[in-house]
């Protein structure tokens, strides 16, 4: 069926495909043609009603940027006329336009800012408008996965609407509340909310709210495995949507229905082939309505998702034609939130068709678009991978393509350029991961170029392991050269090894870790031995990703010795986020903090006394211990002095959610956000903290996201490097290793990396602590000099 249907698109879309190919030659920075061709210039309205009307006309045709501008104009007129109700009406509409553009944070800011005003005008605002404002805000918070504020606002909206007998508005709030409950996994409550909404909707006429309610109910049935019920509801929506007026909301409804139909097909496979045809029918009808009302953004969505159906059916030429059309119309509307998706999709299809150079260009454009506008997210497809997961896949696929393509390049300079681009692509991924983990776009701002790190020391090598589905690619940089070594081990296989290795490594009484240690060494290090030896490498800077972040690479074993006997091992979350500068040993200023007593339910650390005494005997420094180790005192010390080293000997936990990641003080918990604020309070911000030492922290085994937080601690805290542990160890062993690290650091010829290496070797020479569970969890993160 799809094969026959596609033929009608070939001729209809050929011309714009040609135009697209021409436009791609100008790169991703092309200005949207829609602003000068398909849309009229914004005209200044003299009245509030005129601005609102023009905004609605633009919105109905999918011109969301123009609609937002008109509604901003309306808001300003309302402010001038001191009409708070009108201001609220304009803000509600503008927030909806921004939501359609994927600009959720911008929309939240304007609605929340309006509601947060301490004004008598707000307190006497029309209750219908109050309900609409809270519903709008609740829906926006739902889009950015902030459940609590979403719930509070949606419940408030429903309550206001119920009290004032506003049935349609109450139903809208209940539908959105149902979406929230479904997202939280409470399906029964979600169904109850949607059924209540359906009872409130006028059953005499099928309307858009009715259709949305049925769609959302179908989503829940799919989650529950009730595919037959879901299918019936979706078919009803598809059939009865013919009664609805042609407008962009109906296009979005049809696209979402098509996506749900496609999901039903994916879950049931060939058992229900009819769903794939129904999905195509939904996208087809959506595209026809979009053409009719000249809604190019929605047309791009419909064609892009239709392309995916052909791709799944292995009709790659037809799929590519539709992808190129989706790109063209997204460009016309400057719809960046989807343009990168269709560029990526075209790249994937070009790769399958063997058009590798074109595929690389398409992936390159997709990655560039994503990095420029990372805050924009499609507001239609909420059924599949999250935005972050989707972005990660883009970078991984692009790097995979580049790395595989080196076999087809014979010019060595081009090979190296290709490898550096692949590495830079993964660097972008690592930056995005850290920004997502800490929920801070500024936390991962590149500080230096990777090339600078490669040339920093002749005896330093940089190992960049990239784990792909079917293999491991090892990128080794020594001096100004970069080399690729491919290891034929699948992601599934190495991940299982890593999990077992970490599990057994923490046990200090067995050698069960050893076979896994050797296997990982054979995959990650042995293929590089010749290169490392030839370059006289003594320090190895490793940039791990995924599960590799959860293990200490210093404990890999070659069959005779641990790798740390040969190399000082350093971990960095990304090369471009590392600031390699030598530690100034003269006049080092230390702030030493320690907690020996049991507080807040955590056990005491009696050996911290010895650790603190040893550090102070070497460097002196100011001391905060127990009752003086208070959050306020820590803040005062860091803000008033230029400490080069901050040492914290206290419990710390790294969790998947950074809000639950903390270091324990005597009276409070020091979160990563608070730590960042403290460091930024320094009286001389041009002189960063050189080293932050955390000697009693831990991350859960197998928790890649928590390990990501540990990897990014130096970046988030705003320091050049950090010394921290992957798991909590005997505090006596910790005290001995940390004390030896600081003793080694006194020698100006010894780098931080070598100081840690020597401390670890010293621990191995102590019969009590030779097991790697005692010395290997210590990681030096960031600057190693």
Question: Could you describe the 3D structure shown?
Answer:
- The chain is 57% helix and 9% strand.
- It has 32 helices and 15 strands.
- The chain has a 6-stranded mixed beta sheet with strand order 7-6-8-12-14-15, with helices on both faces. A 5-stranded mixed beta sheet has the order 3-2-1-4-5. A 4-stranded mixed beta sheet has the order 11-10-9-13.
- Mean pLDDT is 87; it is low at 4-40, 373-378 and 382-387.
Low-confidence stretches: 4-40, 373-378, 382-387
Helix proportion range: 55-70%
- CATH A-level architecture of the domain at 590-782: 3-Layer(aba) Sandwich
CATH class of the domain at 590-782: Alpha Beta
Q: Roughly how many Å apart are the termini?
A: 64 Å
Count of DSSP strands: 15
Strand content bin:
5-15%
User: Could you describe the largest sheet, including whether it forms a barrel?
Assistant: 6 strands, mixed
Indicate the overall shape: globular
Sheet/helix structural class: alpha/beta
Task: Put the structure in a nutshell.
With 785 residues, this protein is an alpha/beta fold. Helix content is 57%, strand content 9%. The strands form three sheets. The protein has a six-stranded mixed beta sheet, with helices on both faces. Strands 3-2-1-4-5 form a five-stranded mixed beta sheet.
